[in-house]
Amino acid sequence: MTKYEETPKRSANEIFKDESNYLRGTIEQSFKEPLSGKIPEMDTQLIKFHGSYMQDNRDDRLTRQKKKLEPSYQFMVRVRTPGGTATPAQWLMMDNAANTIGNGTLKVTTRQAFQIHGIVKWNVKKFMQQMNDVLLDSLAACGDVNRNVMNGVNPNQSELHAEIYDWATKLSEHLLPHTQAYHEIWLDGEKVQGTPAVADVEPIYGKHYLPRKFKIGLAVPPSNDVDVYSQDIGIIAIVKEEQLIGFNIAVGGGMGMTHGETSTYPQLGRTIGFVTPDQLVDVAEKIVTIQRDFGNRSERKNARFKYTIDKYGIEWFKEELHKRLGYALQPIKEAIFTKRGDEYGWVKGKDGNWHFTIFIENGRIQDTKEYQLMTGLREIAQVHTGEFRMTPNQNLMIANVTPQKKRTIQKLIDAYHLTDGEQYSALRRNAIACVSLPTCGLAMAEAERYLPSLITKIDDLLEQEGLRNEEIVIRMSGCPNGCSRAALAEIGFIGKGPGKYNMYLGASFIGDRLSKLYLENIDEAAILKELQQLFHRYATERLEKEHFGDFVVRTNIIEATTDGTNFHTLAHTV
Fold first, then answer.
1. CB-based contacts of 87: which residues, under 8 Å, 6+ apart?
2. Could you give the CA distance from residue 48 to residue 77 in angstroms, rounded to a whole number?
3. Which of 82, 147, 134, 138 is nearest to 115 (CA)?
4. H/E stretch holding 167
5. Do residues 439 and 512 touch, judged by C-beta distance below 8 A?
6. Mean of the pLDDT values across residues 401-421?
7. Contact predicate 251/317, CB 8 Å
8. CA-wise closest residue to 565 among 304, 341, 214, 335
9. Nearest of 111, 148, 146, 181 to residue 289 by alpha carbon
């Protein structure tokens, strides 16, 4: 009897995986059913492994219910783009799909991936095939597997980007599921006859894949733009004399929690050792297999890798890892982070090519009457010979622009008024929001649609105190699942209900300290009242060059966290 079979109570998702025939389920039949835009629950869970979520437009629910219509079911598809890099041809395909079968927008995610919303059931296969034509796919962009692998895109480190990107791609490809289900269902591949042995189909994951999602990110100090300590495996590049010599490995990071469940919490990854480049893929695989074998398959709320490490202990984990590797990790090497935001505008690389980073508020690419962002980027893609890089902060870099092309692209930037964010406050340039309403089924409160207007009001408070240009990291999530990594924001808001948020303070500017609960279940008026008082104190009492998160800890507005798990405290009383 295997460890999986010994599990006393398997969650519904585990049963779905067990019965899915390696992620096939009845997806193919469900997408041919002509009478409803909905698919069955089992397929709803399995299709996540194929990179898609079934959603509906929650703004329309009540109206459709009154008309006795089913919800306006639609599908979001997330594209796997290791390191956030796409070619101009891939960009043009995504742009065309968004405007012909999507909702007319593209979303740059906090994991450096494309997302398209609003695809009706009968167009999903068409989109999958269009992606395949330009060598893109959505396999493992969601689901209980390793997700899109992130890597830093700091333009000042352009000489290292290709090397780090290569490792991100190697990790992504190595940890992909081996099942042919994706190819069969969406690309009309030849059917696999029968059910092969587990080892023949999924040599890393096994028949039941992982207990929950798994995330990997690579950072190159001094930039922590990938929030490396939020990852299940955080990989920190160690560079000596401009040469990559290896990586520090951090494990067990994760931002999600559940309101009211004290057994769930965000946590920082803990650095456990150093590996050489040739060891990296092997180490990552063995870490994944430990989570596969020991993760919680009974309770999904406690199934992330961070809880596995907490259950067994970090020393046990290191011993288990060394046993599986057959060698020990080397001692940790020094790595210093000083920033994690994006550098906007033009930056020249050491190879002579140029990089232009555009500010995209909350990662939403669309055309409005005032701002033709999507059209401008389409025009650039038609002449660009480099690549596009989506940043972990939901912005976009037009990368590797040759000196000969720079003038042409600058003319298009000017013609469409594509912005480097210079006219915006530092707070807005450092903001992240998840999608939330109306499409995310987990959303409890607004995020992407609300944060811009809230920032406008917060900016007024900062202006009054002479702080408009002060770099402060602010993030908002519509629910506690952590997609915007709000637990690592100096000012974080996590949705609690319509118009209500929990407010968190005290994370570090560079992303190596979690925030803590400050105010609970508050509305906009309470948010602004409290921030006004805090900003006044910050303006008058701060030390030279002291960041806001450090200030609220030093002055005991928020107690300093002593470890990665100390996220919850009693809320401050208004």
1. 134, 387, 388
2. 9
3. 138
4. helix 158-174
5. no
6. 97
7. yes
8. 304
9. 146
Compute the distance between CA of residue 251 and CA of residue 305 in angstroms, rounded to an integer. Answer: 8
Q: 107-145, pLDDT tens digit by residue?
A: 999 999 999 999 999 999 999 999 999 999 999 999 999
pLDDT at 309: 98
Supply angle C-alpha 240, 241, 244, rounded to 5.
Answer: 45
- CB-based contact 150:158 (threshold 8 Å): no
% of the chain residues with pLDDT over 90:
91
CA distance 422 to 427: 12
User: Which DSSP string do the residues of 35-100 spell out, in sequence order?
Assistant: S-S---HHHHHHGGGGTEEEEE-GGGHHHHHHTT----EEEEEEEB-GGGEE-HHHHHHHHHHHHH
Do 264 and 226 meet the contact criterion of CB atoms below 8 Å apart?
A: no
- Could you give the CA distance from residue 157 to residue 242 in angstroms, rounded to a whole number? 10
- The residues near 241 (Cβ < 8 Å, ≥ 6 apart) are none
Quick one: average pLDDT of 210-236?
98
Mean pLDDT across the stretch 283-303?
A: 98
> Any idea which residues carry the catalytic annotation?
78, 147, 213, 215, 434, 440, 479, 483
E strand intervals along 322-386: 345-348, 354-358, 364-365
Locate the DSSP E strands across 301-395.
345-348, 354-358, 364-365, 387-390
Q: How far apart are CA 381 and CA 405, in angstroms?
A: 12
Residues contacting 54, CB < 8 A, separation 6+? 38, 39, 44, 47, 73, 74, 75
pLDDT at 564: 44
The label of the residue with tokens 């007024």 reads 460
Phi/psi for 445 (5° steps) reads -150, 165
pTM of the predicted protein model: 0.95
**Under a CB-based contact definition with an 8 Å cutoff, are residues 187 and 210 in contact?**
no
Q: Which of 525, 527, 490, 484 is nearest to 505 (CA)?
A: 490
Radius of gyration of the chain (CA): 23
Strands of 431-433's sheet in order across: 431-433, 474-477, 491-497, 500-505, 516-522
Q: Would you call 258 exposed, middle or buried from its count of C-beta atoms within 10 A (0-12, 13-18, 19+)?
A: middle
Q: How far apart are CA 197 and CA 535, in angstroms?
A: 61
**CB-based contacts of 391: which residues, under 8 Å, 6+ apart?**
84, 108, 112, 153, 225, 342, 357, 397
Say yes or no to pLDDT of 2 above 60. Answer: no
